[in-house]
Design brief:
The complex is a heterodimer of chains A (about 350) and B (about 450). Chain A contains twelve helices and ten strands. Chain A has about 350 residues and is α+β, with helices and mostly antiparallel strands. Chain A has two domains: about 90 residues, Phosphorylase Kinase, domain 1; about 210 residues, Transferase(Phosphotransferase), domain 1 (Orthogonal Bundle). In chain A, the strands form three sheets. Chain A has a five-stranded antiparallel beta sheet. In chain A, strand 1 and strand 2 form a beta hairpin. In chain A, helix 4 packs antiparallel against helix 6 and helix 6 packs antiparallel against helix 8. The longest helix of chain A is centred in the middle third of the chain and has 20 residues. Chain B is mainly α and about 450 residues long. Chain B folds into two domains: about 325 residues, Cyclin A, domain 1 (Orthogonal Bundle); about 90 residues, no CATH class. Helices cover about 55% and strands about 0% of the residues of chain B. Chain B has 17 helices and four strands. In chain B, strands 1-2 form a two-stranded antiparallel ribbon. Chain B has a two-stranded antiparallel ribbon with strand order 3-4. In chain B, helix 5 crosses helix 6 and helix 12 packs across helix 14. The longest helix of chain B is centred in the last third of the chain and has 35 residues. Chain B starts with about 25 loop residues before the first helix and ends with a helix. Classes of the chains: A alpha+beta (about 350), B mainly alpha (about 450). At the A-B interface, helix 1, strand 1, helix 2, strand 10 and helix 12 of A face helix 6 and helix 8 of B.
């Protein structure tokens, strides 16, 4: 037997696949158990059989980055093995996600809770950025929550390395509500600031308990953004009118919009403003954000184990509620059909994007 | 690509002197799983080669029997001397590595990262497989196709295939999975090119930097780097060591002046007193220079030498007679193995069917339904159709009869959820409806 095949079957033997808990176009998710320890795991089986262009690029990306990134606030990839032509990812078992927590109206958040979730997200993100990777799909339902309350960044299907000077990147990334204006204006050269914008909008969503900027189209997203925070001037954001897809979007006045999140306190408002700076160059980095006074001032962040969690047992539910509720799927356009397809397989991206449990 | 194992230092995670401390590189799969000493590389290859010779010899014998049983005439297997040696395998591998460069630069105009990643994939593949089992002419395009995807420059299959005269999409698809598996699904290769460019910036980061000289040296250093791709260096040294050696080889004075300044300003204390980890670059200067000169010797010996095309052709010719017949479509043994595999898969499917049917019966009995299936009419379980769940892609049923390489043809039930036996009882159905989710 080939060495690689033998190694694979040894790995496969470590895990026992249980019942299916989620199904999507490119992956099915199963409960699983590590045979030697009885530890619960999730097994994500990526369907690879029918692809004309071979192994799916989204799957390859996910595997590529999870193989390299090891951090308490990033979902752990425990093993990879194959059965026939399917790649199986063995992932740590996680109970729920931040989206479910936000939507559960029975839960009341204290500022210390929000501080804790944001701190954990930033720790994971700082590590991702330090390793030269952009996540490009941060949103509450990609921030999973373990049974001990720890937050873990998941879904690296759109991630990529950055830092190659001159290599163009696609601007069709990040779910629209969490997408920064530079991408909406078609910027092809961007950096870690795109992920920071997403964290900023998630921060506000944790305070308001509704998505902060919920545009129905890309144009509407810009409108809502500028309506909320004022149309940027050349001074706020030097050079933005030169971006490829720039167009004038009304001229909304600047209001002290941060008053609506005054409950988080002055330091918190300050940090949100730094995360949602129009100028990507001026936007705070994950590292700098972690050093922000918000995290050292009273109250102290809630320990993960004491964070609010949905009490009711989780029911199976749609894997991508955003799509069915008019939240945007990633749009495809232009050349390089295959790449784009990987980013957005179908209009309703019915992909098992996270673990759902019966 | 051969590296004599005497002159080289043992380099690898075990040698603490080479580890400047945790960095993203030290967490990488490359550092954890793809670092070897020259001697361990040699022994891995010797073992692979030895095993393949055995397998090929045995299978050639079996192929002979199979052919004879089919009534075909058959020529005798090659004598043992005809089998490839480790250095034959390496020469062939080096040739195909150089082909990747040609195709990337002339054929597709792909960036360097695709080229170096594809070459690394090919080299890593042959640390798990032998040339006599899988011919590099088939594996090389697959490595390139896969590397293009993992480095964000995907090429559509049709476009890709059009650049190869004797290749069909299936040749790629058949081996892509095997390649990914041989790589341990570890796709991120840390190329020394980034390190080299990093050094070019670091070299400028000193008082009164010789910018003109650095600019002049850079293209030549990049040329050295291209030669590194054809060697084993990436398995033995870190990308930054290789990058610096490429500079040093182009202009030793430039690098030595820089190191002199770096070491004299940053480690002022008596070096013997300082912990290794706290030293500049995590090691003493003479050790670093020794590593650089070892790398440079390898570049000059293995990387820059011309590939002997005559020898490559001769090896390739010999390889035709000593490739594992199991892996060549069309041989009697290939057909036989495929049939065996199909039978095995059908058997396991039948077992699953039996299990599902038993479970269905079980379910019925829980609800006390008065089913009476005359045991005489109950068909042999293995005769039943497999209870394949309906496979849909976005609601569109996948056409039945999908054949994937390495797998038997799967008959997909169009109506999906179970099979009726002759009593009209649905068996094993519902499965997906129970656990599947509305999407």
């Amino acid at each position: 037997m080939d060495l690689a095949v033998r190694e694979n079957s040894q790995r496969a033997a470590r895990w026992e696949k249980g019942v299916k808990v989620g199904e999507g176009t490119f992956a099915n998710v199963y409960k699983g158990i590590e045979r030697s320890t009885g530890r619960k795991v999730a097994i994500k089986k990526i369907k690879a059989g029918e692809m004309k262009d071979g192994l799916d690029m989204t799957a390859l990306r996910e595997v590529k980055f999870l193989q390299e990134l090891h951090h308490p606030n990033i979902i752990a990839l425990l093993d990879v093995f194959s059965v026939k032509q399917n790649i199986n990812l063995v992932l740590e078992f996680l109970d729920t996600d931040l989206e479910a927590v936000i939507r559960d109206k029975a839960l009341i958040f204290q500022n210390a809770d929000i501080k804790s979730w944001i701190a954990m997200s930033l720790r994971g993100l700082e590590y991702i950025h330090r390793n030269g990777v952009l996540h490009r799909d941060l949103k509450p339902n990609n921030l999973l929550i373990a049974s001990n309350g720890e937050l873990k960044i998941a879904d690296f299907g759109l991630a990529r390395e950055f830092g190659d000077a001159g290599s163009k990147m696609t601007c069709q990334v990040i779910t629209r509500w969490y997408r920064p204006p530079e991408l909406l204006f078609g910027s092809r050269f961007y950096s870690t600031a795109v992920d920071m914008w997403s964290i900023g909008t998630i921060f506000v969503e944790l305070i308001l308990r509704v998505p902060f900027l919920s545009g129905e189209t890309d144009i509407d997203q810009l409108k809502k953004t500028f309506h909320a925070m004022g149309t940027p001037t050349e001074q706020d954001w030097p050079g933005h009118t030169k971006l490829p897809d720039y167009h004038e979007i009304g001229s909304y006045p600047k209001n002290p919009w941060w008053n609506m999140i005054s409950s988080i306190g002055k330091e918190g408002q300050d940090l949100v403003k730094d995360m949602l700076k129009y100028d990507p160059v001026a936007r705070v980095s994950a590292r700098k954000a972690l050093e922000h006074r918000f995290f050292s001032s009273y109250p102290r962040p809630t320990p993960p184990a004491s964070l609010p969690k949905p009490l009711a047992e989780l029911r199976p539910r749609a894997l991508a509620p955003d799509e069915t509720q008019g939240k945007p799927a990633l749009k495809s356009s232009g050349s390089g059909a295959m790449k784009r397809k990987a980013e957005s397989p179908q209009p309703g991206r019915n992909v098992a994007r996270k673990l759902v449990f019966a | 690509m051969t590296i004599s194992n005497d002159a080289q230092p043992e380099a690898g995670p075990s040698t603490s002197g080479l580890t400047p401390g945790p960095s993203p590189y030290h967490e990488s799969s490359q550092f954890r799983h793809w670092r070897y000493s020259p001697s361990s590389l040699l022994s891995i290859r010797e073992e692979l080669n030895g095993k393949s010779v055995e397998i090929v010899a045995r299978n050639t014998e079996l192929e002979k029997e199979a052919q004879i049983s089919l009534g075909h005439s058959y020529t005798d297997p090659p004598p043992p001397t005809a089998y490839l040696t480790v250095s034959d395998e390496l020469l062939l591998l080096r040739f195909y590595c150089s082909q990747i460069t040609q195709i990337c630069r002339r054929g597709f105009g792909l960036p360097d990262v695709v080229e170096s990643t594809a070459i690394s994939y090919l080299k890593r593949f042959y640390l798990k497989n032998s040339v006599m089992e899988w011919h590099p002419k088939n594996i090389m395009p697959t490595c390139l196709f896969l590397a293009a995807k993992t480095t964000n420059y995907p090429i559509l299959m049709d476009q890709f295939i059009s650049k190869f005269s004797k290749l069909s999409p299936d040749d790629i698809l058949d081996t892509e999975f095997l390649v990914a598996q041989s790589l341990g699904f570890e796709f991120w290769v840390r190329s020394p090119e980034k390190a080299l460019r990093g050094w070019s910036l670091d070299l400028q980061n000193q008082p009164d930097p010789p910018i003109g000289l650095i600019q002049k040296t850079l293209p030549d250093a990049l040329k050295n780097l291209a030669h590194c791709l054809l060697t084993d260096l990436e398995f033995i040294y870190t990308p930054s060591q290789i990058g610096l050696a490429c500079f040093h080889l182009s202009n030793s004075q430039l690098v030595e002046d820089y190191l002199e300044r770096k070491y004299s300003t940053e480690s002022t204390e008596d070096e013997d007193e300082v912990e290794i980890e706290k030293l500049t670059f995590g090691m003493r200067k003479d050790r670093l220079l020794e590593i650089l000169s070892n790398i440079e010797a390898t570049i000059e010996k293995d990387g820059q030498s011309e590939i002997d095309l005559k020898k490559v052709k001769e090896i390739d010719k010999r390889l035709k007679n000593c490739t594992n017949p199991e892996k060549i479509p069309g041989t009697a043994l290939y057909v036989k193995r495929k049939r065996e595999k199909e039978t095995a898969e059908a058997a396991s499917k039948a077992a699953k069917t039996a299990k599902a049917a038993a479970a269905a019966l079980d379910r019925e009995s829980v609800f006390g339904s008065d089913l009476s299936i005359p045991s005489s009419k109950s068909p042999a379980l293995s005769d039943r159709k497999p209870l394949s769940p309906r496979v849909t892609m976005n609601g569109v049923p996948v056409t039945s009869g999908i054949t994937r390489p390495g797998g038997a043809e799967v008959a997909l039930e169009d109506d999906g959820m179970g099979v009726k036996d002759e009593n009209g009882i649905v068996m094993g159905g519902k499965g997906l409806r129970d656990v599947g989710l509305p999407l």
